[in-house]
Design a protein that fits this description.
This protein is an alpha+beta fold and 306 residues long. The chain has helices at 20-41, 45-116, 283-287, and strands at 127-135, 143-146, 159-161, 166-173, 178-182, 189-194, 200-206, 213-220, 230-233, 245-253, 260-267, 276-280. The protein folds into 2 domains: 21-118; 127-285, Thrombin, subunit H (Beta Barrel), CATH 2.40.10.340. 32% of the residues lie in helices and 25% in strands.
Length: 306
């Protein structure tokens, strides 16, 4: 090989170009120019739009695994929840079917007994829907005010019910509103019947016990009363229809110094938050009034004008 063919140029490593400071100043000035131009004239907006459009498929593909994991987790969660709700619904349906069969059987037995004893059919009792407006202002009583009064033919002494049981009794009637004394008021007493034993007693309001409850008084220490017994209206007072739920026995205290037990009950009605109620016409109003007895004839004296 001849010496003339040897390339005597410097290798690329030793090539000299613009200095690092010149490059820094150039690209700094270019960056500043682009920032000012973009802020003033939005010159890079088309470039951004083009880049965003080009990268959209890539972004969509990148988030699909995340969406798949989330949707799969939500699917299995919803499926498990749906299965549990379906099982609970089937259980409630079975219980309701069982209770419906028991109610139908008891109704048939009741009808047979009524026909056997030649009892008259139960009278239809009219009811009046009302709404609780507010609690009474007296802090020493448990009363509420409802939006029905004399203008709506409200009767004094009418029982008041909610969706769970006996709530109270109308104790004062005004032209447009009425005052209802709740079952937990100390001045209210309701004749009740123990569904389990058939024993009659009287339940009194006891606002001190447990923030508002009821009490069975004058029950002997050996009385057959158990925790959980259901108390309903006995109907012997001529005001409350028989069979309305009143309370459930919650606690029994046997006292050695007394011949009577202390029996606490929890009302079935929502005494602290009832909103919509039914006012039942008193039973005595459906029985009619007895004819007045004739006035005794007083023989007149002789010589007196008749």
């Amino acid at each position: 090989m001849s010496l003339g063919t040897i390339d005597r140029s410097l290798p690329p490593f030793f090539n000299q170009g613009p200095s690092a400071l010149s490059k820094l100043m150039f690209f700094g000035a270019l960056s500043l120019f682009l920032m000012v131009a973009d802020a003033r004239f939005n010159v890079t907006q088309p470039i951004r739009a083009a880049i965003a459009t080009a990268l959209y498929p890539v972004q969509w593909l990148a988030v699909q695994p995340v969406h798949a994991v989330k949707n799969g987790s939500a699917y299995f969660t919803d499926l498990s929840q749906a299965q549990s709700e379906s099982a609970e619904a089937r259980r409630k349906l079975a219980l309701k079917s069982l209770r419906a069969g028991q109610v139908e059987q008891l109704t048939q037995e009741n009808d047979r007994l009524r026909k056997l004893l030649d009892l008259r059919e139960q009278l239809a009792i009219p009811v009046l829907a009302a709404e609780v407006l507010y609690d009474a202002a007296d802090p020493y009583t448990r009363k509420v005010i409802i939006d029905k009064g004399q203008a709506h033919k409200m009767d004094l002494g009418s029982p008041v019910l909610d969706e769970s049981g006996v709530l109270g009794q109308v104790t004062r009637v005004h032209p447009l509103v009425s005052e209802v004394t709740l079952v937990v008021d100390r001045d209210l007493a309701i004749p009740v019947l123990n569904v389990r034993t058939g024993a009659r007693s009287v339940a009194y309001g006891d606002p001190i016990a447990g923030g508002g409850g009821m009490e069975l008084r004058f029950m002997g220490s050996n009385a057959d009363v158990q925790v959980g017994d259901l108390l309903t209206t006995s109907g012997v007072d001529g005001v409350y229809p028989a069979g309305l739920p009143v309370a459930t026995v919650s606690r029994i205290e046997h006292r050695a110094e007394s011949a009577f037990s202390k029996i606490y009950c929890v009302p079935k009605a929502l005494t602290t938050g009832a909103r919509h109620v039914l006012v039942v016409k008193p039973v005595t109003s459906d029985l009619g009034l007895l004819p007045d007895a004739p006035a005794p004839v007083v023989p007149g004296r002789k010589g007196t004008a008749k």
